[in-house]
Amino acid sequence: MITIEHLTKFIGIQKDPILHDVNFQFHKGEMIAIVGSSGSGKSTLLQCLSLNQKWDQGSFNVDGVDVLKLGFMGKQKIKKEWAYLEQSPEFNPKRTALKNVIIGQRGQTPWWRRLSGTVRSDDYMGAMDVIESLGLLEKAHFKMGQLSGGERQRIAISRALVHGAKVILADEPVVGLDPKSAESVLEQLRTLCKEERVTVLTVIPLDLAERYGSRIIGLSKGEIVFDVKGRRLTQREKSLI
Ligand SMILES: Nc1ncnc2c1ncn2[C@@H]1O[C@H](COP(=O)(O)OP(=O)(O)OP(=O)(O)O)[C@@H](O)[C@H]1O
């Protein structure tokens, strides 16, 4: 069980908080869609949950552990397990998809391994299994530049999983993708939730949120204005965001 209480976040010298008294709980395996208009605080929420942004107020409890009170190493562990996926994930374009997955990003593997590209056989097997589960086995040896936007997103998800992600915080993972690729990315995320008990919080458009989210959280001006499970939104709820 994960509990977020009274999360409040200010940025810079702004008087009003970007996130204000955000409270919600969730379980492993949920696929939570975050919706809201531009500037409502969706990215900031995901960044606070990934600990990429400091919390100004609030408590964050994961399976009985008070995350904000953890020391440096404890927070590093949470950062690995709570992977923030950007809209345009960064890769080394000269390396194959497989190598990008194995070598990981800064903070996931030691610098000398990222530089040398050294691959161990057990890393190789584990990465191939994950890439296959995301439906990209035949593209594993392609250079990153040869992959489509949707395939790059799925490689980013594979990379996060190989490096220990249990929660995926995907910030607009389908922006710029054609409808088929967008559905494929969301389908894979949903499968991960159902079959692997990965938890996904993702910022996606409303129509896709209604189709793929097991739960939809609406944000407006940094506050939660609805939190619904297992159903489409009412017109009234839609008017709140
Ligand atoms: N570094 C920053 N400095 C100042 N203001 C910021 C900063 N980052 C975010 N903000 C402000 O915080 C508010 C919320 O931003 P955030 O990116 O979380 O919104 P969002 O809902 O993800 O928006 P979008 O859908 O446009 O990506 C916005 O008003 C934004 O201008």
Automatic annotation (TrEMBL):
Keywords: ATP-binding, Cell membrane, Membrane, Nucleotide-binding, Translocase, Transport. Residues 2-241 form the ABC transporter domain. It comes from the Bacteria. InterPro entries: AAA+_ATPase, ABC_transporter-like_ATP-bd, ABC_transporter-like_CS, MetN_ABC_transporter-like, P-loop_NTPase. Pfam families: ABC_tran (PF00005). SUPFAM superfamilies: P-loop containing nucleoside triphosphate hydrolases. SMART domains: AAA. One of its GO terms (molecular function) is ATP hydrolysis activity. This is Phosphonate ABC transporter ATP-binding protein. It comes from Paenibacillus crassostreae.
